[in-house]
Amino acid sequence: MFESSLKQLGDALRAKKISSVELTQLYLDRIARLNPELNAYVTLNPEASLAQARAADQCITKNEAPPLTGIPIAQKDIFCAKGWRTTCGSKMLENFVAPYDAHVIEQFNRAGAVNLGKTNMDEFAMGSSNETSYFGTVKNPWGTARVPGGSSGGTAAAVAARLCAAATGTDTGGSIRQPAALCGISGLKPTYGVCSRYGMIAFASSLDQAGPMGRSAEDLALMMNAMAGFDERDSTSLQREKEDYARDLNKPLSGLRIGLPKEFFAEGLGSDVAQAVEAAIAEYRKLGATVVDISLPNTRLSIPVYYVLAPAEASSNLSRFDGVRYGYRAPDYTDLTDMYEKTRAQGFGTEVKRRIMIGTYVLSHGYYDAYYIQAQRIRRLIAQDFTEAFKQCDVIMGPTSPSTAFKLGEKGDDPVQMYLSDIYTIAVNLAGLPGMSIPCGFGSNDMPVGLQIIGNYFDEARMLNAAHQYQLATDWHSRAPQGL
Amino acid sequence: MTWEIVIGLEVHAQLSTNSKIFCGASTAFGAEPNTQADAVSLALPGVLPVLNRGAVERAIRFGLATGAHIAPRSVFARKNYFYPDLPKGYQISQFDLPVVGQGALTIQVEPLSGNAKPYEKVVRITRAHLEEDAGKSLHEDFHGMTGIDLNRAGTPLLEIVSEPDMRSAAEAVAYAKTLHALVQWIGICDGNMQEGSFRCDVNVSVRRAGEPLGTRREIKNLNSFKFMQQAIDYEVQWQIDTIENGGKVHQATVLFNPDTGETRSMRSKEEAHDYRYFPDPDLLPLDISNDWIEQVRATLPELPHVKQVRYVNDLGLSAYDANILTASREMADFFETVLAAVPKDAKLVANWIMGEVSAQLNRDGLDMKQCPISAQQLGGMLQRITDNTISNSGAKEVFRTMWAEGGDADAIIDAKGLKQVSDSGAIEALVDEIIAANADKVAEYRSGKDKLFGFFVGLAMKASKGKANPAQLNDILKQKLAG
């Protein structure tokens, strides 16, 4: 049962081979057994989950069941869900119970899914290892001495360890794709604006995007069908016709032009990762795809640009956590300024404070032109690189992360080393393009390797098609960590 | 030593939308604290702003009314600072790309003293931009604590910034009053200053004639024209005294205390914030198409200065009359509705409105909107003057009755028997009788005592019970007395 795809689970539920209540309880029991070690979930609410499951069972009885009815889906703890504690991985929101649903949550409710719980994450989505969470690090199910990646580390571990059928993540600089790669699962960051950001706690507004994480491309397509859609409460949400992301899954790949950017296969890439990715490309050739060498010359600038723009937006987005209206407030203070200072000093962790400081600095008078404006210019150049590249190819492929999962604490003292683990993913966010990661082998330490697929704007269906055809021909995506 | 005063204004006009600028919460005044604060007003984690189209439309109206450039693309920026009544930790405003660019406003200045004559002046407007208001801190109601009311947070404002073109308190007040009238005229702001719908910040500096601009101090949040004048007068004198005593004026923000009539420093430039403006990534740039601008233009009423010119050139009114009759939309609408009844007699209409109507309104403490006589009723009465049905004195009686009891002119004229006698035969008979009965006076008149003419008019009027057509009566009397 824990190995079933979303489609299989849906069929089983509709055929009444199992009830949603039974299925949900099975997952809750498995979580109770494995979560103490993995720490993938920060909040469970079995009563709320089971109540949703009971409602789902009624829908099924009445034959009114939308596609995900009764299927237990976990939600990254960045999404506000009415009545659920929503922490965003921070002490600042340790006791915050959201009074409203994020658009993504509404979409899953509409699709009939059961909210199984809220998954752990780097604090305010800032991190690449899940070590910045106030609620403790998440362990990689493939090796518990290793990180699951971040910031959607809880989601990635929960999917990999079969603690949910699928789950949501968010991706600002690689936070879906990198942990998907490190945990051996599939994850998709859609085109910016395809999923509403309403109710998703903001890190860097112009980069943040919600997306699905699951065991296969086919599952991701079903998740996307539920999640995506225009929302008038988000001004950056795109008004587009409802798509069927599963429509192209079964198209043959003959004639698909794959671009390989030379910059993705250069210094800094682990040789074991390179080998696995090259083997995947060879598989694609067998499936009928052709390969073109391309160049993304400004990619090397994406990390510095990102670490100007993302902290700039974050420093402003996180100003609302001031202790006045909700969330943490320092217990003792002398006056208003002291209240702000102590609340924010005590409520935020080190990485969040570091980025607020960087952001405040780059926006401050006298530095704005040199940092923020300059970074916006380079951002446009990075996006142009992709526009040029897509004249030569249909999708771009390469490694998701330069290495497999590293050890807990290994990069904790060196933020720049940590930032480099998103070197292949960040440019995609800066350009607003869709990107995904699928498992494509294992590294020298037997940890999973991810293949990144980058598509042109709104080309999610084509990317999912490419991923699905690969997954029909290989079995990397169906391997599960042993010993759980 | 002569001093020149340099004044510029920043005016915050609250736009008359029903909902806030970035969410659907109500903007109605006077609600219980925090009952008009939804998730967006409270800046709950995850909420996002959505721009209110009605606020943009009002900004466009203002731009068109001041002959300003409407930016085809403008940008919303975040102004970052911490304050308890600023829920997001930033205010969404516009910075380097505002929606309304350079425009101008023509003002009529009434000098405050001396024998100087009223004059006209053009004040340049630098820009006008859209922004959201903050909430309110309530210091009085909570012992040792501060209450926060976020009902106001997110109320749409248009901040209108002038060039430092004003040279006296009188000019500053005239500019503020003209702007106040204009925003109401074009229907973008209710102008209610007590409720904070129209607030002024005044930048004041002084310099010796011919010298570069002095250091300015900004008087914040003036919400009455009287206080504005007092604050500027005090501030100007303070700055002059400071400099003449060898001191220096430092840039600062000051508050005016109406009780003492003094200004007091709130914060100096050294404490000024670095607001770290940057474009708000949650909002797309605001694109305004030409079509949209033209749609708004089509709904714009004729503007006061255009009306003034028309009243003078086409209706033959004086500039003074035209100015008064366009002081407000209600006044001008009233005038034009009355005029429709007697289209050739603009001066008569103007005299009645500026005379009897204004005097009665003043006496009863009413404004134009509350006038008990409708413009149609007044027009009906003036028609009866121009067609000689009633005399001026009869009209005054009709007017008094209308004001007190209502009713149309014709009904009152009938009921009171005020119709004047224009039958020349009847008037001749009357005059003949008077001449016959006052032979001695007639003789005196004929021997050169012209002043007696009035005496005969009086007698004839009395005999006709005031109903004789005065012009006719005069003619006939003159003729008959001449013998």
Structure in words:
Chain B: Keywords: ATP-binding, Ligase, Nucleotide-binding, Protein biosynthesis. Chain B: One of its GO terms (molecular function) is glutaminyl-tRNA synthase (glutamine-hydrolyzing) activity. The complex is a heterodimer of chains A (484) and B (483). Chain A has 15 helices and eleven strands. The mean pLDDT of chain A is 97. Chain A is an alpha/beta fold and 484 residues long. In chain A, strands 1-3-2-4-6-5-10-11-9-7-8 form an eleven-stranded mixed beta sheet, sandwiched between helices. Chain B contains 15 helices and 15 strands. In chain B, helix 9 runs antiparallel to helix 10 (392-405) and helix 12 (424-437) crosses helix 15 (470-481). The chains are: A alpha/beta (484), B alpha+beta (483). At the A-B interface, helix 9 of A face loops of B.
SSE arrangement:
The complex is a heterodimer of chains A (484) and B (483).
Chain A: H1 6-14, H2 20-38, E1 41-43, H3 46-61, E2 72-76, H4 103-110, E3 114-119, H5 153-160, E4 166-171, H6 177-183, E5 186-189, E6 209-214, H7 217-227, E7 257-261, H8 271-286, E8 290-294, H9 302-317, H10 336-347, H11 350-363, H12 368-389, E9 395-399, H13 415-419, H14 426-431, E10 435-442, E11 448-455, H15 460-473
Parallel strand pairs in A: 2-3, 2-4, 7-8, 7-9
Antiparallel strand pairs in A: 1-3, 4-6, 5-6, 5-10, 9-11, 10-11
Helix pairs in contact in A: 2-3, 5-6, 7-15, 9-11, 9-12
Chain B: E1 3-14, H1 53-65, E2 73-74, E3 76-80, E4 90-94, E5 103-109, E6 119-132, E7 136-138, E8 147-149, E9 156-162, H2 169-185, E10 198-208, E11 217-222, H3 225-244, E12 252-257, E13 262-268, E14 278-279, E15 286-287, H4 290-299, H5 304-315, H6 319-325, H7 329-341, H8 346-364, H9 375-386, H10 392-405, H11 409-416, H12 424-437, H13 439-446, H14 452-463, H15 470-481
Parallel strand pairs in B: 11-12
Antiparallel strand pairs in B: 1-9, 1-10, 2-15, 3-4, 3-14, 5-6, 6-9, 7-8, 10-11, 12-13
